[in-house]
């Protein structure tokens, strides 16, 4: 409700506001901002997505999963089969 929102106020701004992902992309291409400028970079989103997928696998297995140093599931090897599959023809790594 508006009354509570007005009472609470706006939170303190901690991050620079994004001008929009299209503009961020072109600014990065032109070298106008340092590489760390983008707030949606893969160094953050990759590990976060992997953790979300591990949560999905854990929910599907119905139990807590244990991982080794390489990130492979050791508590239930059958679950590893759900975590990876061979890419379809034409969608694998590029041959150089």
TrEMBL record:
Q: Where is this region: Disordered?
A: 1-22
UniProt name for this protein:
Gfo/Idh/MocA-like oxidoreductase bacterial type C-terminal domain-containing protein
